Amino acid sequence: MEILTLPFIQHAIMAGILSSIACGIMGSLVVVNRSVFLAGGIAHAAYGGVGLAFFLALPPLPCIIGFSTFMAFLIGALTLRKRQRLDAMIGVLWALGMAIGIILTDLTPGYNVDLMSFLFGSILTVPRSDLIVMFLVDAFVIGTVIYFYKEFLATGYDLEFSKVRGVKVAPLHLLFLVLVALCVVITIRVVGLILIMALFSIAPYISERYSRSLFDMMIKSIILNLFFVFLGLYLSYRFDLTSGATIILVAGSFFFLVHIFETCLSLLKG
Fold first, then answer.
1. Burial level of 97, CB count in 10 A (0-12/13-18/19+)?
2. 54: burial class by Cβ within 10 Å (0-12, 13-18, 19+)?
3. Count of helices and strands (H, E) across the chain
């Protein structure tokens, strides 16, 4: 319990809570919309914002938010009429964003920042200023999803029926992409852009199998993410491991344990 008195541990816990809420909510929508690759694409494209921040000597998080939101709008504009081309567009912008970030970091004078913190996360070094931004993003995501819950629910399960019922699919699609981009950005500080897809997909995938509604799925995903983050954070501190990778290792192990349990249960019933 003594470690809880350390400021950097308190910041890490707050960052874990805020990112778990965001990933639980938006991860559920991502899984329901079958767009897990989308989160990974935006995450990797966000690296362009990292390079831009250091090249211009600006605070990283606001710069990454702006760049990721721009990329989300770009993906939305390019795939608005051709949703079946979404994966191709994501692949192109994924590579483009990474390339921009790498080139800008190469051009940064006297560049000596540890890129590993953005690639694999650095939850133990989250500053107070980033926590404020993460809180504001969480508040915006929660408020927006509550307001458009019925529309997100309809488009997630039956897009064509939603169009017939008069739901404005195009603006909602753009809003969905922006929300994903915002959640990706605040999660980068926790597990890094390389591992971010796992935190977006593992908990919602498990929760979906035991949920009766989208709301129920979101709540269970948040609880599971909190479990993954806190256990991973404790293990990383206890055994001196990389925090982001440890969190994802815990999530991945739980994912396979659930599958093994379900397989054994089905064999016993059979």
1. buried
2. buried
3. 13, 0
Cα separation, 95 vs 128, in Å, equals 31
Q: What is the mean pLDDT of residues 75-79?
A: 76
The pair of structure tokens assigned to 220 is 């269970």
pLDDT tens digit string along 20-43? 999 999 999 888 887 777 777 887
**Coil, strand, or helix at residue 94?**
helix
Q: Please report the pLDDT score of residue 216 as a whole number.
A: 93
> What local confidence, expressed as pLDDT, does residue 162 receive?
61
Q: What angle do CA 23, 28, 34 make, to 5 degrees?
A: 115
pLDDT of residue 81: 64
Task: Give dist(CA 78, CA 47) in Å, integer.
Answer: 20
Residue spans of the domains in the chain: they are 2-269
- Rounded Cα gap, residues 160 and 24, in angstroms: 26
As given in the structure block, the two tokens for residue 54 are: 């250091």
User: DSSP secondary-structure letter at 166?
Assistant: T
* In the predicted structure, residue 161 carries a pLDDT above the cut 60: no
> Would you call 252 exposed, middle or buried from its count of C-beta atoms within 10 A (0-12, 13-18, 19+)?
middle
Please classify residue 238 by burial: count the beta carbons closer than 10 Å to its beta carbon, then call 0-12 exposed, 13-18 middle and 19+ buried.
exposed
- What's domain 2-269's architecture? Orthogonal Bundle (1.10)
